[in-house]
């Protein structure tokens, strides 16, 4: 690896000292690196899934336009992941005046400290190097964030020790924004920031100056400002000061996965699935039902759409499902971890904790709604593959008084034998191809899927203990149920 120059004189003689590179701003740096990545092809932001045709084109345009921007979206829509991925568009290393608190450029210093040091040492000024990850500063906006936190404050101790006046810039203790100079500053939940702090942020964006306790301080910062917010909070009157909103160049809307396949890809990428002791056999049907729980929740009228249903729901559900299957494998002595649909009921805590309920939902209870979501997800998965199949033989057998106990405690072989006792169930699973031939785990999941679908259609019932039986034929109508959609 080539030795990086450690003095200003050596820096001037290196490629880093070329005028086109030495004088460019952080927005120009990101723009040039983004253009190079576009020319090379491939993924622009690895790990960001489902935004290729929607969010990312707007983000690319904002960066190429050298805009400050805001990402508007509900929780769990990868806003923070996108902001953190911006660091991949920065150079590997950046030269700064050694000892500078705000990443002063040796060629365009901002602080009094850097100006003084360059004037004293000239070409012998020591140079330090800052990596791309150190050039990203992120802050969660809360009502108690102050101008001192974000921008800075006068430090009387510095003034006393250095013999400076309080109005001298050398007495200033820099906040998070100046320390992000020549980098990226990300502020999450912008509407929660107090109005007077927003004014200070606006002054830095627009004029490059700010008043600290009545003393004007000039901060010609070079920074890319990125924000996130909930759309409802951002548009509410009084949440954002108008001059600040007007200076944000691009407003980019994020969204939840538009297709189940996209959601499954995100969940697979983010969930902790591989365990140390036993290999995992995750049947695709189980993964799809888990993902569809979130999709069903996002359209359920008993769940608050203003809060959204985070993509973390299927991620944590999958982790809980795998853990429950892992526990079963240990207890039954099975060599592999084979999650089943019954394991979703053991993951209810991972569902209920992610749902913000409306009034009717609060009356019913989160656990009741979560169970309905699991059944509706199973029904949607089956309908997607075979359509509205009747499965009359299965229903008739249960209507005749038969019952079947299916728990998450029994091994796969015993479960397969139990499903074989239900007339027409095994034949239906084989006929529609819900499981590959000879795959006992997938076959058991296919049988569970059929029974859960029938419960969702109110043709069968399922107790909390996992006992399938004849359905209660008395009509019941609940808002947000599949019956409402069919009416």
Number of strands: 14
Report the sheet with the most strands, covering strand number, pairing sense and barrel closure.
5 strands, parallel
What fraction of the residues are assigned to beta strands by DSSP?
Answer: 5-15%
Uncertain stretches of 5 or more adjacent residues: 482-487
Helix content: 40-55%
Count of DSSP helices? Answer: 24
Shape: elongated
Count of the separate structural domains: 2
How would you characterize the overall build of this protein?
Helix content is 45%, strand content 12%. By secondary structure, the protein is an alpha/beta fold. A five-stranded parallel β-sheet has the order 4-7-10-1-11. It has a three-stranded antiparallel β-sheet with strand order 12-14-13. It starts with 7 loop residues before the first helix and ends with a helix. The C terminus is likely disordered.
Q: Could you write a compact summary of the structure shown?
A:
By secondary structure, the chain is an alpha/beta fold.
Secondary structure elements and their pairing?
Blueprint: H1 8-13, H2 19-22, H3 26-40, H4 55-64, E1 69-72, H5 79-85, E2 93-97, H6 112-121, E3 127-131, E4 136-140, H7 147-150, E5 152-154, H8 156-162, E6 172-174, H9 176-179, E7 183-188, H10 195-206, E8 209-212, E9 215-218, E10 223-229, H11 231-235, H12 242-247, E11 250-253, H13 260-270, H14 284-298, H15 312-332, H16 343-346, H17 348-352, H18 359-364, H19 366-386, H20 392-399, E12 404-405, H21 412-420, H22 425-432, H23 440-456, E13 460-462, E14 467-470, H24 482-486
Parallel strand pairs: 1-10, 1-11, 4-7, 7-10
Antiparallel strand pairs: 2-3, 5-6, 8-9, 12-14, 13-14
């Amino acid at each position: 690896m080539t030795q990086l120059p450690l003095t200003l004189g050596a820096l001037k003689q290196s490629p880093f000292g070329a005028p086109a590179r030495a004088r460019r701003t952080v927005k120009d740096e990101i723009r040039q690196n983004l253009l190079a990545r576009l020319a090379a092809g491939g993924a622009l932001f690895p790990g960001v899934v489902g935004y290729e045709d929607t969010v990312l084109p707007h983000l690319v345009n904002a960066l190429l336009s050298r805009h400050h921007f805001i990402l508007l979206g509900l929780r769990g829509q990868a806003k923070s992941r996108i902001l953190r991925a911006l660091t991949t568009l920065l150079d590997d290393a950046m030269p700064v005046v050694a000892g500078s608190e705000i990443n002063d450029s040796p060629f365009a210093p901002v602080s009094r400290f850097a100006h003084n040091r360059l004037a004293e040492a000239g070409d012998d000024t020591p140079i330090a190097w800052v990596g791309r990850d150190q050039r990203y500063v992120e802050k969660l906006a809360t009502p108690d964030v102050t101008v001192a936190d974000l921008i800075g404050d006068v430090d009387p101790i510095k003034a006393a020790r250095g013999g400076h006046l309080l109005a001298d810039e050398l007495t200033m203790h820099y906040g998070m924004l100046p320390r992000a100079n020549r980098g990226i500053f990300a502020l999450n939940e912008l509407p929660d920031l107090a109005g007077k702090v927003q004014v200070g942020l606006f002054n830095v964006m627009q004029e490059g100056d700010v008043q600290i306790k009545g003393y004007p301080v000039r901060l010609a910062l070079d920074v890319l400002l990125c924000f996130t917010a909930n759309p409802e909070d951002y548009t509410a009157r009084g949440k954002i000061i108008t001059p600040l909103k007007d200076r944000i160049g691009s407003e980019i809307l994020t969204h939840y996965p538009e297709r189940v396949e996209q959601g499954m890809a995100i969940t697979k990428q983010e969930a902790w699935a591989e365990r140390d002791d036993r290999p995992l056999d995750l049947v695709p049907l189980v993964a799809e039902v888990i993902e569809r729980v979130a999709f069903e929740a996002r359209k359920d009228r008993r769940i608050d759409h203003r809060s959204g249903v985070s993509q973390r729901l299927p991620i944590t559900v999958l982790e809980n499902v795998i853990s429950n299957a892992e526990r079963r494998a240990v207890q039954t002595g099975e060599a592999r971890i084979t999650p089943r649909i019954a394991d979703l009921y053991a993951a209810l805590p991972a569902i209920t904790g992610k749902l913000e309920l409306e009034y009717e939902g609060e009356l019913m209870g989160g656990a009741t709604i979560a169970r309905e979501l699991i059944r509706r997800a199973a029904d949607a998965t089956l309908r997607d593959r075979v359509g509205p199949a009747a499965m009359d033989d299965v229903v008739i057998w249960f209507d005749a008084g038969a019952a079947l106990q299916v728990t998450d405690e029994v091994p796969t072989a015993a479960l397969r034998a139990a499903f074989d006792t239900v007339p027409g169930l095994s034949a239906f699973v084989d006929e529609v191809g819900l499981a590959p031939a000879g795959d006992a785990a997938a076959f058991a999941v296919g049988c569970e899927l059929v029974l859960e679908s029938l419960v969702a259609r109110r043709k069968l019932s399922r107790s909390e203990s996992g006992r399938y039986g004849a359905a209660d034929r008395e009509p019941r109508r609940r808002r947000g149920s599949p019956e409402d959609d069919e009416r």
